[in-house]
Amino acid sequence: MFQNQPSAQPTASSAAPALAPTTGAVATLQALVAEGVDTIFGYPGGAIIPIYDALYDFKEQLNHVLVRHEQGGIHAAQGYARSSGRVGVALATSGPGATNLVTGLADALIDSTPVVCITGQVFAHLLGTDAFQETDIINITTPVTKWNYQVTRAEEIPEALAKAFYIARSGRPGPVLVDITKNAQMQTFDAPEYQPCQHIRSYRPAPVVRRKYVEQAAALINSAKRPFILWGQGVVLGGAEAEFKAFVEKSGIPAAWTILGVGALATGHPLNVGMLGMHGNYGPNVLTNECDVLIAIGMRFDDRVTGRLDKYAKQAQVIHLDIDPTEIDKNVKTTMPVWGDCKETLPLLTALVERRAHPEWLARFNDHMAQEVEAVIREELFPTSEELTMGEVMQQLNEITRGEAIIVSDVGQHQMVACRYAQFNHARSNVTSGGLGTMGFALPAAIGAKFGAPDRPVVAVIGDGGFQMTIQELGTIMQTGVDVKIIILNNQFLGMVRQWQELFHQRRYSFVDIQSPDFVAVAAGYRIAGQRVAARADLRPALEKMLAHSGSFLLEVMVTKENNIFPMVPQGCSVAEIRLR
Amino acid sequence: MSPEPADRQEYNITAYTENQVGLLNRIAIIFSRRKINIESLNVSPSEIEGIHRFNIVIVETEEVVEKLAKQIEKQVEVLKVYFNTNADVIWQEMALYKVPTDVIAEKVLVERLLRENGARAVVIRKDYTVFETTGHREETDNLIKALQPYGLIEFVRSARIAIIKASDGFHHKLREFERREPSEEVAENEFLNDREQVFTM
Fold it and tell me: What parts of the sequence cross the membrane (chain B) (predicted)?
C-alpha cells in the first residue's frame, strides 16, 4: 500500500517535473516552497519524522527554526505573519505536539492571523485506537481553526495544502491545520505539478460590494455633524493603509483605533485621536456616545471596545465596513452595512464623500486629550516620584526608535501601556495578542516577527508574569542568533489582575505576587546579553545600549509595583463612564 | 436572561454543504458554544450530486437565528444557508410504532385505526407489527395515544425534513456558481438588494 522507505525519496533538486514519483513528505515541502514559504517554526517528533527527514534535503529552500515548545512555534508563526503579511507556518508532531498548538490557533483565529499548521498523525490504520501519541486533533481544533483537514493518503497532500494556504490568507485570514498521517508522509505517489488553489466552490472569501450601500453610506457621512471613525485590523489585513488615509484626510473625520488597527494611520497624524476601549483614550470613549454617525472600518466591536452594548453609541447611525458578513449586526446594529474588502470599498466611499473639516468636533477630542494628559499621561510619562513607570520606558523608547520599531507586547498592564504610548509610524508594527489575551505570546511572537521583517528593529515588551510562560524560547534566540530586544517591565506582580483586585475586589491580592528569577542571569545562561535597571538615570543609557547592541539583548526594568492603567472603562459600564482615576 | 417565549419560535435552518468529513461537528459546535439545543437534525443528499442538505430545527429568536445562519454559511464547506419559520416551509416527520400483533389483532379495529391516523403497516410478524405515519408532531403523536393502551413496545420519530415554500430550490443557484467557476468574483446574494428581506449574509 505504501513504501516504508523515506530514504528512497528524491531530493528537492531532482523534484518538480509533472507526475514525478514523490513521497508525501517531499510533496509537503514542495508545496511549502511553491507557496513561497521561506521560514518554518517547528518541533520534531515521532509522527512527523518523515517530513523532518525530507526537510534535511530542503535546507537551502526552507529555513527551519527549532523552537523549544510547540506553543512557541505557533506564536512565532503568528509573529511572522503579522510583521510580514504572509502566511506563517508551524510544524508539530501528533498528540502533545499538536495539542500544544491549540492556544496559538485560538489566538490566531480571534486575531485573524493567517497561519498554516502541519501536524503529524499516527498511521491511518491506527486512527481511533488510542495509539501512542494519538489525539483527535481535527476535532480538538475545529472550534479554533478557519478550516482543518486530515490527510490519510499521500495523493491528497498537494490539494490539501493548496487549499490550506488559500483559505488561510484569503478573505478574513485565519489559522488552518492540516493533519497528515505517518503513512501518508511515507507513501510514494506520482505527484502532479503543484497547483495553487484559486477557488473553492463553497467558499466566498469576500462578499460582493454593493454600490448602493456605498452611496447611502456616503450620503450619511456627508450629512453628519459629528462623524467619528473607528478602525481596526481589517485596514491592515486589506493592505488598505493608503486608501484609509485618503478617506480620513478627505472627509476630515476624527479617527480612533483598536489595538490591532494601530499603525494604519500614524500615531502622530492630526486626525488620529487615539485608542478605543477599556484602557483607551478618554476622548474617543466619551465621544463615541456623542457622535451622530459612527463609521466602523475593519473592526468587530469587541466587548473590550464597546463596554456595555446597551449603552453603546445609541444616538449614532452606524456604518460598518467589513469583509466578514458575520460581523455585520453581530454586536452593534448597523444602519448601513458596507460588505467587502476595505481596500475595495474605501476608495469608492472616498470618491463620494465631500472634502470637509470638522474643527469644532475635532477640538472636543483635543480638549478631552488635554484633560487626560493632565490627569494621567503627564505623570505616567514624566513621573515625579522616584520609581520608574512603564509609561516612561515607552516614552524613552519612542524617542530612540522614533516610531520605526516593531513593538511586540505580551498581555497585561504593560501591553496596555505599550499600545497607549508606543509611537507607530507604520502598519504591521504592533504585534500583540488582542482578542485572546494570551500571556506568553510576546517572546516567541517577537522571534517570528523578526524573521518576518528582518530589516526592522523588533522590541518585545513583556511583563514578568508573561515572560515566564514561554521563557524557554530564549533557547530559540540563542540557537538561531535572531536579533530580538527584550524589555521586561517587572512590577513583581501579575499586574493587571492585581489592578482588578485593587479596584473591584477590596485589594484582596489573591495569588498575584509572583517571584521571578534573576532574568539577566537567565539570559546570560542562554548567552544573551542583558542588564537590569531600577534607577531613572540608568534607563536611557540602558535603552540606547540595548538598541545599539549587535544581537539580542534583555533589559529588565524594575517599575512601580502598584501602578494602575488609567483611563479605564470598568467592566459592565458604558464607554462614556470611562474613569480617569 | 433568555428572551421572552413570545420572541422565540421554531426555525427551520436549511444548509447546503459539501459532503465533507467533520463538517457535522463544525456546524454542531456553532450551536453548542452558544448553549442552544438542536431540536431536530437531518442530513441527507440533496437533488444535486455531492451536495448535502442539513435541516436543523431550533427554537430561538429571529435575531439569534440570523446570526447562527451567518456563522454556518461562513464555514468553508457550506454553500448556502436559509432560515424559515414553520409557516414558510412544508415539513414532515416520520414515526414508527411497534406493537404486539396478538393484542392488535384481538382488540383493535386495525383498519379503522390506520385510516384515522393515516398510518400503514410496514411489517406484520407473529410477535409484533410495525406501523408508520408521517406528518407534523401532533399528527404522529396521535397514533401514540391510540396505541399506548395496546402495549406499544417501541416508538421512534425521525428528524424533520422541510422544503422551503418560496424557494426555487438551490439547484439553479448552484449551477450558476459552477458556470462562473473558477472566477474569484463568484459571489451572490441577490437578496442583499433588499435588506429587510435579507436572510443570509
Answer: none
